[in-house]
């Protein structure tokens, strides 16, 4: 991270005073013992306590805070629940963490028009929770949904296991209330389907807290399907599993999810939760939705395709309990890998047709770098999650792991994919942006930030290579 | 009319332009009255991978060519773009770039999203003459800012699109339409809400107060595998029985024609008057129609998209104050256009942000100047 600005550091006392003038006392955290709580997100390899942290309770308070920081030229890092895997919410020593965790109210639920309006500190799962009794749900379901906030979901344009059918956050976001760095408040979109004018909503979603602080969101809610059922398919090669994914997609069925796990992950989850997975090279979980008859119709077709690929095993769920067991290993996969060692979770996306090749290359590189990799990911849309295992206590291991990770991401770009499918760039992939984008492409993006945040104070050291933003940040 | 054949040629043309460029694809969407630069020379499907559900095409590729290629593999563009020619009385060949520039989306928008939701990558020439790419050809991509969405619906004011990439969907095996006759607007909107709020995956929900036979008709579409379609259509008919007898139509040609009729607003074809397109929350649809007192109305998107046929030269925006949403003037005489902006003026600070973006992408103000402000 860039060297902290001594000028900003020296005005901490005045800044804290001013912030206390607009927020309740317990909403301004400046004691170094307490600011530590905000020193990192889920990319725990990087830590740095902020200058101070604030926890506003309303859009007005957010506006007041930003106005002061704008006035004092102090960088601000917005924070939801701090589950970013890319270091999106990592502070710098000269920044104010603006956490929206206290803003978690449901503001409006409208079933006739199928939307919910919430404050963005609300967790993803509790948005669905708020409409569950009427059999509705909010579709994007990141695995972190118990903890992560809608604020972070919007900033990262998060996805989930079911986005093959329902899309990611941007496809389910209808409107936002956002505070600009200068303290002005904008309303974009709303309960109507198409926001007018330029698609600013689309631009803000996925902008990693660099364009404004989103305080309220209007989200599309959907009626729950009558039912859902997964099948588990085991194969003795990654290539064959990859081919099976492609064939299912081509056949005209649209499962809600196609999840992939390879042998290292299967073994780790078996040791962890004992879901009863077969010991095989690769495993697919394919889930379809609808009434019983509809599910049967789709599964018949899917199983027919799977059989043509000589599966080691096909396991159809016949009860809610069996369905839960099929999903159990997948849902515990990250935790299971974490028990073996520290891991870095990558997030590159590739064209589905390249799955077998990329999996093979990752295996080869794993041997070259001497670090174990497990693969568990959303196969239907090519969004890979290689988990590289390393030992944080072993000097040099993290560096090797990062090098290895960078090579995998370059490979993803090489085959026509991208650096990140749902976790965001943050600090983690910042310096790889040049691999995917030419200078003009990046410049066009920087110019967008110039419009929203001319002083470059909002989360300024993320997303773009530091030398590309140096002049703008100073 | 300039007609560049390559992206480089286009970039040179923009870089060296010393007068405003009025950009068109096929010129069928009535956006630019007197185009001086056409993208129709930049054609071809560059990559189509049915197994990955993705397609990349040059911006000038005829929409029909794209649709035919997809059809051959049993796939389709999810968002069902309308054809504006009948409504506007335009001729020419709609291009895929024009679809994107205008974010053209049809009845399936309520289920499958708008054009912008299926768009996964763009290349464009900005107002400086720089060729810029964003996104790519994979379904999930959050690498950097999403300029892909920004370009969709920017009507050529931020850059001239040269290449567009989409994610696709399988075309369904079967389709059924459930019809309820004789409902008034507010009953109809309530019926539509009940249907789209069900678990039966309705992919079209429209109400036309003056249907082909002169009477109100409310239409619901389901698509998918044959058994599933039959099941869901039956369930919908049952769900809607409080609103009157529901008829189920499964004839492929009739149902296709019925939704084309809604998609292309055929109920207005050949009738005089200005055409407005209003986007509101679905339950506000009837309020819009009542506030404007339109000659004719077509409700799509469960009531959230209101097409209005009104007297020529009349600005309806003042009548809609207090109803959240926006109104676009889709068809009007040049004299009206010079009086009434095509797009709803934005409030501050939104207007300032939009203007700021236009200045960044097109500092000389030469791309379709004035169109979106
Ligand atoms: C175990 C685990 C599993 C995960 N699984 C998934 C998954 O399946 N899919 C997926 O997409 N992600 C996944 N993630 C990543 C992460 O949960 C998502 O990126 C999530 O959206 C982050 O939300 P958050 O509230 O924790 O945001 P934070 O980590 O607090 O912040 C993330 C970014 O959002 C910005 N931000 C926060 N609040 C605001 C605001 N109010 N306005 C503007 N910007 C703001 C921050 O500055 C930062 O850049 C996983 C993470 C973990 C730890």
UniProtKB/TrEMBL annotation, chain B:
Pfam families: FAD_binding_4. One of its GO terms (molecular function) is catalytic activity. Residues 1-171 form the FAD-binding PCMH-type domain. InterPro entries: FAD-bd_PCMH (IPR016166), FAD-bd_PCMH-like_sf (IPR036318), FAD-bd_PCMH_sub2 (IPR016169), FAD-linked_Oxase-like_C (IPR016164), Oxid_FAD_bind_N (IPR006094). Transmembrane segments: none annotated. Keywords: FAD, Flavoprotein. PANTHER family: D-LACTATE DEHYDROGENASE, GLYCOLATE OXIDASE SUBUNIT GLCE. This is 2-hydroxy-acid oxidase. It comes from Actibacterium pelagium. The lineage of its organism: Bacteria, Pseudomonadati, Pseudomonadota, Alphaproteobacteria, Rhodobacterales.
């Amino acid at each position: 991270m860039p060297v902290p600005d001594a000028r900003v550091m020296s005005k901490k006392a005045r800044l804290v005073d001013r912030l206390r003038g607009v927020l309740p006392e317990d909403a301004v955290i400046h004691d170094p013992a307490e600011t530590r709580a905000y020193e990192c997100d889920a990319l725990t390899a990087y830590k740095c306590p902020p200058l101070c942290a604030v926890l506003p309770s309303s859009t007005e308070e957010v506006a007041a805070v930003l106005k002061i920081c704008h006035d004092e030229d102090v960088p601000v890092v917005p924070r939801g629940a701090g589950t970013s895997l890319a270091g999106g919410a990592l502070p710098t020593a000269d920044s104010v963490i603006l956490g929206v965790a206290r803003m978690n109210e449901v503001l409006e639920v409208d079933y006739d028009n199928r939307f919910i309006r919430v404050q963005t500190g609300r967790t993803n799962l509790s948005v669905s929770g708020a409409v569950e009794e009427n059999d509705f749900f909010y579709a994007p379901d990141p695995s972190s949904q118990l903890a992560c906030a809608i604020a972070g979901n919007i900033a990262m344009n998060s996805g989930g296991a079911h986005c093959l059918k329902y899309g990611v956050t941007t496809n389910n976001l209808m409107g936002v209330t956002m505070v600009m760095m200068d303290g002005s408040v904008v309303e974009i979109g709303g309960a109507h389907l198409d926001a007018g004018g330029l698609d600013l909503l689309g631009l803000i979603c996925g902008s990693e807290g660099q364009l404004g602080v989103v305080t309220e969101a209007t989200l599309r809610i959907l009626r729950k399907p009558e039912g859902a059922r997964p099948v588990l398919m085991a194969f003795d090669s990654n290539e064959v599993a990859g081919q099976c994914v492609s064939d299912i997609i081509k056949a005209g069925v649209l499962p809600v999810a196609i999840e992939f796990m390879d042998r290292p992950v299967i073994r780790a989850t078996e040791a962890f939760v004992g879901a009863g997975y077969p010991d095989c090279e690769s495993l697919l979980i394919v889930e379809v939705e609808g009434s019983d008859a509809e599910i049967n119709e789709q599964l018949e077709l899917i199983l027919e395709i799977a059989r043509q690929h000589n599966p080691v095993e096909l396991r159809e769920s016949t009860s809610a309990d069996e369905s839960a067991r099929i999903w159990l290993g997948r849902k515990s996969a990250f935790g299971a890998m974490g028990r073996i060692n520290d891991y870095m979770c990558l997030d590159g996306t590739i064209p589905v047709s390249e799955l077998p090749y990329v999996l093979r290359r990752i295996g080869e590189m794993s041997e070259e770098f001497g670090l174990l990799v497990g693969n568990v990911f959303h196969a239907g849309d090519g969004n890979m999650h290689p988990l590289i295992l390393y030992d944080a206590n072993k000097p040099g291991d993290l560096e090797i792991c990062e090098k290895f990770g960078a090579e995998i991401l370059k490979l993803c770009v090489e085959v026509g994919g991208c650096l990140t499918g749902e976790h965001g760039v943050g600090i983690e992939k910042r310096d790889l942006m040049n691999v995917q984008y030419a200078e003009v492409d990046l410049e066009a993006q920087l110019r967008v930030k110039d419009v929203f945040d001319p002083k470059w104070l909002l989360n300024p050291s993320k997303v773009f290579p530091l030398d590309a933003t140096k002049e703008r940040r100073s | 009319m300039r007609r560049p054949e390559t992206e480089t040629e286009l970039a040179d043309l923009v870089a060296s332009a010393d007068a405003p460029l009025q950009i068109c694809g096929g010129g069928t969407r009535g956006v630019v009255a007197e185009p001086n630069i056409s993208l129709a020379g930049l054609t071809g499907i560059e990559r189509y991978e049915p197994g990955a559900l993705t397609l990349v095409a040059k911006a000038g590729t005829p929409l029909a060519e794209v649709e035919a290629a997809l059809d051959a593999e049993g796939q389709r563009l999810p968002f069902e773009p309308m054809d504006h020619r009948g409504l506007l009385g335009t001729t020419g060949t709609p291009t895929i770039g024009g679809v994107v520039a205008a974010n053209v989306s049809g009845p399936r928008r309520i289920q499958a999203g708008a054009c912008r939701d299926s768009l996964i990558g763009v290349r464009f020439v900005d107002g400086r003459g720089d060729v810029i790419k964003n996104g790519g050809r994979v379904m999930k991509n959050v690498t950097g800012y999403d300029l892909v969405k920004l370009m969709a619906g920017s009507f050529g004011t931020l850059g001239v699109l040269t290449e567009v990439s989409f994610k696709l969907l399988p075309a369904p095996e079967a389709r059924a339409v459930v019809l309820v006759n004789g409902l008034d607007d507010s009953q109809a909107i309530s019926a539509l809400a009940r249907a789209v709020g069900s678990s039966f995956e309705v992919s079209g929900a429209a109400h036309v107060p003056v249907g082909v036979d002169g009477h109100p008709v409310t239409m619901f579409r389901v698509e998918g595998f044959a058994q599933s379609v039959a099941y869901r259509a039956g369930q919908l008919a049952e769900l809607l029985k409080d609103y009157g007898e529901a008829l189920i139509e499964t004839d492929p040609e009739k149902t296709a024609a019925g939704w084309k009729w809604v998609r292309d607003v055929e109920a207005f074809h050949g009738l005089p008057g200005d055409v407005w397109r209003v986007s509101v929350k679905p339950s506000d649809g009837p309020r819009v129609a009542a506030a404007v007192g339109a000659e004719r109305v077509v409700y799509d998107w469960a009531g959230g998209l209101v097409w209005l046929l009104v007297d020529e030269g009349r600005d309806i925006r003042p009548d809609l104050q207090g109803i959240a949403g926006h109104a676009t003037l889709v068809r009007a005489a040049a004299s009206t256009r010079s009086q009434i902006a095509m797009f709803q003026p934005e409030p501050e600070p939104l207007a300032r942000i939009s203007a700021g973006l236009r200045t960044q992408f097109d500092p000389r103000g030469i791309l379709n100047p004035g169109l979106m402000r």
